[in-house]
From TrEMBL:
One of its GO terms (molecular function) is zinc ion binding. Belongs to the zinc-containing alcohol dehydrogenase family. Residues 14-359 form the Enoyl reductase (ER) domain. Pfam families: ADH_N (PF08240), ADH_zinc_N (PF00107). This is S-(Hydroxymethyl)mycothiol dehydrogenase. The keyword Oxidoreductase applies. PROSITE patterns: ADH_ZINC.
Length: 361
């Protein structure tokens, strides 16, 4: 028997989101129904609504979530009703080429629920990042549920499900930040501040935050930024060089995802340093640069999908650090909102008023 729940959908490109009835089927083999307790509003949800990801409307938005397992389908052995879980969009398959080669964070056959959630008229919904958690309950693959300490606050740990993990992982996993490094992070939203927090955890000596919004720069200091640059008034590349004895940073992370910020990241890094692109560009964006610069500056130019994380490895570890007071996940939660306030939260995100609005059920 499908259950009727309330959920937030995007019907078409650029249209305001809508709170409506969603039908959640009973879990089939390998699936689980999760009662969502909290779900953060990520910039990627807005990308979906704007048609920037794909055209598979209607979307059931929301994907940075934590909740309690309510039902599991046949064959699910590592999860049971009552488990507190953070949802992830990288349930690795274990058998694709990437998994077999020991690089499961590149898994290209990740698991999602195979049954669709639908509108009342039967229209299948595309759940954002295979999750769809701006809903009282959601249907996912059991591998998308990572058990963490039930004592942790859902609104905070749910953020590990996407943006904060993407940021932490961009620094630690993709960028390989280690002790003594200089790191610059361009764009200090939830993802960029995750990268700053990750760089601090990894022992970076200098952490330079770059944003166009002074409020964001102030918050970035709380996550570990040792220096800040206001991109509205400064030349970002030379300001980063000035702060690093003229060299540039060892690792520069672009958490905006635009040609101009990527170029800043490229030129603001030391020779043979690392650039990590974690912000998501839109399909129309182009980059034109002298090829000789790629050659002569050396180093590595990387993209970070979900911070190259492995949820089973990384989520419980970060929840431990959070509970020990070494990683301030609470500081990412700017406000707790109700399910009918997602559209307003997009607006606040746009105006830079919040790091994360989190829907709490
Ligand atoms: N790679 C991944 O796996 C992954 C996962 C989650 C989110 N993302 C992407 O990461 C990006 C950031 O997400 P978010 O939730 O932190 O968004 P956000 O809107 O909260 O933050 C973006 C920040 O960038 C700043 N900014 C914008 N233009 C700038 C510029 N030219 N120079 C300096 N700063 C600038 C804004 O002021 C804001 O503080 C988005 O593109 C999102 O889709 C990627
Ligand atoms: Zn795989
Ligand atoms: Zn996200």
């Amino acid at each position: 028997m499908a259950q009727e729940v309330k959920g937030v959908i995007a019907r078409g490109k650029g249209q305001p989101v809508e709170l409506t009835t969603v039908l959640v089927p009973d879990p089939g083999p390998g699936e689980a129904v999760v009662r969502v307790q909290a779900c953060g509003v990520c910039h990627t949800d807005l990308h979906y609504r704007e048609g920037g990801i794909n055209d598979d409307f209607p979307f059931l938005l929301g994907h940075e979530a934590a909740g309690v397992v309510e039902q599991v389908g046949a064959g699910v052995t590592d999860l049971e009703p009552g488990d507190f879980v953070v949802l992830n969009w990288r349930a690795v398959c274990g058998s694709c080429r990437a998994c077999r080669r020991g690089k499961p964070w590149y898994c290209f056959s990740t698991f999602n629920a195979s049954q669709p959630m639908t509108l009342s008229d039967g229209t299948a919904l595309s759940p954002a990042l295979g999750i769809g958690a701006f809903a009282e309950k959601t249907l996912v693959h059991s591998g998308q549920c990572t058990k963490v300490s039930p004592a942790a606050r859902a609104a905070a740990v749910g953020l590990l499900g996407c943006g904060v993990m993407a940021g932490v992982g961009a620094a630690v996993n993709t960028g390989g930040v280690s002790r003594g490094d200089s790191v610059a992070v361009i764009g200090c939203g939830g993802v960029g501040d995750g990268a700053i927090a990750g760089a601090r955890i990894a022992g970076a000596a200098k952490i330079i935050a770059v944003d166009m919004d002074p409020r964001k720069l102030e918050w970035a200091k709380g996550f570990g930024a040792t220096h800040t640059i206001d991109a509205r008034s400064a030349d970002v590349v030379s300001a980063i060089q000035d702060l690093t004895e003229g060299f540039g940073a060892d690792v520069v992370i672009d958490a905006v995802g635009r040609p101009e910020t990527w170029k800043q990241a490229f030129y603001a890094r030391d020779l043979a340093g690392t650039v990590v692109l974690v912000g998501v560009p839109t399909p129309d964006m182009q980059l034109e640069m002298p090829l000789i610069d790629f050659f002569s500056r050396g180093g590595s130019l990387k993209s970070s999908w979900y911070g190259d994380c492995l949820p089973t490895r990384d989520f419980p570890m970060l929840v431990d650090l959070y509970q020990q007071g070494r990683f301030d996940l609470d500081a990412f939660v700017s406000e707790e909102i109700a399910l009918d306030q997602v559209e307003a939260a997009f607006d606040k995100m746009h105006k830079g008023e919040v790091l994360r609005s989190v829907v709490v059920f």
